[in-house]
Design brief:
This protein folds into 2 domains: 198 residues, Quinone Oxidoreductase, Chain A, domain 1 (Alpha-Beta Complex), CATH 3.90.180; 126 residues, Quinone Oxidoreductase, Chain A, domain 1 (Alpha-Beta Complex), CATH 3.90.180.10. The protein is globular and about 60 Å long. The protein is built from 11 helices and 17 strands. The longest helix has 14 residues. The protein binds zinc ion (2 copies).
């Protein structure tokens, strides 16, 4: 099959488009012809060589939608021709995490697309009944590609943040692919939604997404403004999507007893934390990874019934993957950049 292949870690021009072996599905797996694959901040870090599980040469891409073309003998829920979206990893289905509905953090299965297993920058991927959800005909596959990561990540974090109707939530990196959809989901949940973004020209999109308050903070120091717009208390929860640059201000933005959900980290590295801040205010720091299969199923329903409108910033042919990575690195986009495979 053809694929955008990374042979050396480095810059956006390191991809070459060429031939690699087509993956062969096991007895409990399906073969999916990829129609579209979202490009994620995670992909940029992977390309630069920040992930220990990635082995070169690799085919990146974990935001995958496509059509089933082959099924293993024991597969019951899918048949050739079915349209599917996938969560970012194939879990084992048997470990304690999988059995408690936390297959998103399973480390016993085949693994994560674009790291342990060949990803959606290739023409085909393997999947299983444990990571695939059927996509109804009213959702185009280029939209379906963004459901699990760009929408599902915020869905998962908001679910884990245990917020109630009328609670307040601060979302950092609010104009990015995950951020803009988290704003929309927060509004759908009836939360007072405060969006932090880096530049004035991103305000309009955040207003359209439904943010109640928009804080423009190019210098990542926003906690005083957050206290002002929350009557001095701070927010019930922060969905921290930017990571190390915004962390210090996020901690100061949350009210006593609140939660900081650690979702993204655009610049790998450590964050400053004075334990007293968390102790005296009993702030919970909660890591939140990617969507579970149940999360993705819900997101498909929300999009199919038009309760959440996905934001696609650009669609780019798969063979022009370097352009897509450059566009992402310039951080001038709102919403998701999606790679489209040739004949879709
Ligand atoms: Zn992603
Ligand atoms: Zn497992």
């Amino acid at each position: 099959m053809r694929a955008a292949i990374l042979e050396h870690f480095g810059g956006p021009d390191n991809f070459i488009v060429g031939e690699v072996p087509r993956p062969v599905p096991g007895v409990d797996q399906i073969l999916v012809k990829v129609a579209a694959c979202g490009v994620c901040g995670h992909d940029l870090l992977n390309r630069a060589g920040h992930f220990p599980h990635s082995r070169l040469p690799l085919v990146p891409g974990h935001e995958i939608a496509g059509t089933v073309v082959d099924t293993g003998l024991s597969v019951k829920r899918f048949k050739a021709g079915d349209r599917v979206a996938l969560i970012q990893r194939i879990p084992c289905g048997l470990c304690a995490l999988c059995r408690s509905g936390r297959e998103n953090i399973c480390v016993s299965g085949p693994g994560f697309y674009g790291e342990e297993i060949s990803g959606g920058y290739g023409d085909y991927v393997i999947a299983s009944e444990r990571n695939a959800v059927g996509v109804p005909d009213n959702i185009p596959l280029k939209i379906a590609a963004v459901l699990s990561c760009a929408i599902g990540t915020g869905f998962h974090a908001l679910r884990r943040a245990m917020l109630g109707l009328g609670d307040s939530v601060l979302i950092t990196g609010a104009s990015g692919g995950v951020g803009i959809h988290t704003v929309k989901l927060a509004k759908l949940m009836g939360l007072k939604t405060i969006a932090v973004t880096s530049a004035e020209d991103k305000r309009e999109k955040l207003v359209a997404a439904g943010a109640d308050e928009i804080v423009i903070s190019p210098g990542y120091q926003f906690h005083k403004q957050i206290r002002e717009v929350t009557g001095g208390d701070g927010v019930d929860a922060v969905i921290e999507i930017t990571g190390s640059p915004t962390f210090a201000s996020s901690i100061r933005s949350v009210k006593a007893g609140g939660r900081v959900m650690l979702v993204g980290n655009v610049e790998p590295g450590n964050v400053p934390l004075n334990p007293a801040m968390a102790i005296l205010k009993e702030i919970s720091l909660i890591g939140s990874g990617h969507a579970t299969l149940a999360d993705l199923q819900k997101v498909v329903e929300l999009v199919a019934t038009n309760q959440i409108q996905p934001e696609i910033a650009a669609t780019i042919p798969r063979d022009k993957v370097s352009d897509a990575h450059r566009l992402m690195e310039e951080r001038k986009t709102s919403g998701r950049v999606v790679l489209i495979h040739e004949d879709t």
